[in-house]
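During the reporting period the student researcher (J.K.) took over the structure-prediction task from the postdoctoral fellow and processed the backlog of single-chain submissions. One of the processed entries is reproduced below for the supervisory committee.
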Amino acid sequence: MTRLSIGTSRIFAGIDIGTLTCRLLIAELTGSGKLRELRSDRRILRLGHGVDRDGILRADAMGRVVATLKEWRQVIDGYQVEASTAVATSAVRDARNREEFLSLVRREAGFQVEIISGEEEARRTMLGIRSGLPSGVTDMLALDIGGGSTEFILDRSGRPPMVRSIDIGVVRLSERLLHHDPPTPQEIQQAREWVEKESAAAVADMPRTAGLTCVGTAGTITSLAAMAQQLPAYEPVRIHNYVLKLEVLEALEEQLLSKSKAQREGLPGLERGREDVIAAGVIIVGTVMKTLDLSSVLVSDLGLREGVLLHMAERSTQA
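J.K. obtained the following structure tokens:
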């Protein structure tokens, strides 16, 4: 296999093994400390399906992820990477059989997976977000909605970040409360009450001063940004730094919660495979915005995947 390199540039590869989605990024670290994407991929593999109820990773879900990681190992081997890594988040953190999964990945795909805490996930997500913010954004509250958990990260200039992680994500909320298709008004109300209670507690000790920008990242918020613009295909340049307003979000919420999974298929901007969990996603985003009294959220197409690479680059420089 031909190994690709770019002069003497530093190339890193990272994989984010999430509850719902797995993501690959191979990128060059430029002289200015920014990442230039060379190759990326994302797959909705649902590793965390049933973990909230059963506490274990299912064999079929592990099989899907391992098969994808084997494929990505070959892709990574085609580049002259300085270092590569794979991290796992909520689903693997919570599963009783996580060691079985880690062993399987190590044996079949050759990756030593690092299970990161909610706090460490938030720290690396912030690295990714910070690398692509528009000028003028300094103090911010980041919202990272995953499949199994949601992280709130208050990051202010000259102060250590404050991180709070709650065990509510789109998969966990769907499996625990949204049992009908479409969800019933009672289920929607129960979901909103749960999200409101947990998010209010999470940010209770976080000072929210004037000039604070709320930034949202990960698949739920980027999908909603794509839907708000009715994009026929995913366009990172139109999604990144898009301002999602509350009134637009509320219109999407009304549309999505009134439709079944089948009726949501093919809606402009909605990523294929996200038709069921987008109901939980729009509930989480809408409830958090109202709980925190936010009129808009700045959408970031950068997050944990980019942060994982920047963290690797930091460590290699310090070594």
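The committee noted the following: The mean pLDDT is 91.
J.K. will present the remaining backlog at the next meeting.
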